[in-house]
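Can you give me the bound-state structure? Components:
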Amino acid sequence: MSAGWPGMTGATDHVRVGTRSSGEGTCPDYLAAKAHPALRPATAARTRKEKLDTFPLGILNAALDEIERNGAPTAQAVDLAVEEAAGEGKRPHPAALTWVRAGVAQYLAGAARHRDRVQPADRATVLVRDYWVASEDRRASGGRLWEMYAYGRRYESPDGSVREIRILHYGIFDPRQPAGDRQDAQGQDSQEDHKLAGRAAQEALAAYSAAFGVAAPWPRRWSEPFQPSRVLRAPAGPIRLVRVVQVGLADGEHHVVFEGIPAKAKREYEGNGAGQVRRAVTRGVPQPGGGCAQCKLRTACEALEPLPGILGITDPGAPVRTWSAASGRYYSRCPAQAHLYRLHLPRDREYSESAKRGQAVHAWLGQAHGGPGRTPCTMRDIPASPDDWSAGRWHVTGEEARRGALMLGSHAEMCPFHRASQLGEVRVEPLLTVHDTAANVIVTARPDLLYLEDGSWVWRETKTKARPLRPGTDLLAEYPQLALGMILLAENLLEGKPAGRRVELELLYPDSSDMILLDPNDHAHLARAREVIHDLAAPWHADETAVPRPGPECRSCPVRQWCPDALPLADAGPAPDEADDDEDGEECE
Ligand code: SF4
Ligand code: SF4
Ligand SMILES: [Zn+2]
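Here's the bound-state model for the whole set.
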């Protein structure tokens, strides 16, 4: 066992921090484990590998290498990159390749514009295969070997005196928006701040490794240290200029975010990078979430609760994936759509106006319930200008804004804080994560509100609706997060008193509200919940191809721009009735 790492083995005197981990806003222990490349689980999990490629940026980079190094035409370069991936047992989804081809074209056009903006003497035009690795080896004195490198495209001037790193993003890179390219739905301020710090650290680390790094090929094994390149290069004089460029592949635009001499890169690193690098290698309080699927501590981590069997699937050797009720719903609409969400390909018009209204209402209530007091919401606690208001990152205007404000008024009589004196712990939109070890799936859920009432947990989901539910609606099938809530309460994940625990569905209409209670202690209801979750998860779990299912969904599909099977709009049938569309916007990991 490795000291300080129960359940793990391997050397801990070797640390490696790349720009990706310095910018990842996930669990501190995940980052710390990742930063120790020789650390591995003491008992290796025997699981199958994914057949579909899940990292299209890798294919795009390989294609660009072929074009820039060997002058291959784009189509041939992409074919070669696909062949290379096939050699490693990975097959990219056809829609991901549409994105790769578009990204390659945008990148090349943007690179030409960027080149023209840089003074000829300062251009970095020669593609560099090696990584630039800044390292400090203190092992001789009982310390550690530190390696810092940047993941991006690397170029240098023919005389080696100018070095440039370009960091690629899937969508548009907006220097004012720190959230990066994942377009996630959880725009809480603390996360934004974290990502901003992450990006500053990423850029500082990139500048530092370019200024002081030694050229080194990717190690044969991840656990081995980088070794300096033996390839003879152009006579390398001192490095006089370093540049860090952020590139959005949606428009190819190259944004220079750092340019300066090595001394400036060092100052930048000391100011913005070094602290983050130290934090990246230090353990903290584990925070389970979707990232657990990629974490090498997964089998050793005590914070990740194992709940075998909650999906009703037995296949412990399956490739580990993440699932939520939302990702199940995306999959049931179209397997390809769910896969492209998982790849984080850019989405277009993701939220209808009514879905934005639903998000804004949720964000408003989240803020109202998350404050320090437990003041009940009243009819007066609605936006001051009902036809133009914002909550969190959601801004609504016009008819949907007015509707949303009325729905907030309808919440007043449903507010759980009218019974504040009976409530114990309250958690607003908590992220719950468990590992269904029987299916090898990380399952996540984010209830709108959890509260402890007389020692029993209550799981509340709020839905905004313009019209009443259709009579006879199967609530658990319509809103599978209710079914997942029933199961997690029944499994006593939250450890409250079993009697009295319940799931509440709060329905908010413009002129009224309703509350439906679901009892996880009722065997018939619980059996139906398990059936719903199994039926939603099982086809997804067995799927290794994500074949598109063209149909009416294509009309409003946010990833149709990448999908070669998208039905033409004229054939996709009528637009879905959006007036009642309260999407919860949960991310598909
Ligand atoms: S398994 Fe999850 S909670 Fe545990 S260290 Fe890894 S990411 Fe963090
Ligand atoms: S365009 Fe249609 S077929 Fe393609 S991913 Fe979207 S819903 Fe599926
Ligand atoms: Zn309230």
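A couple of observations. Residues 27, 29-30, 286-288, 291-292, 295, 297-298, 301, 303-304 surround iron/sulfur cluster (ligand 1) (CB under 6 Å). DSSP finds 14 helices and 22 strands in the chain.
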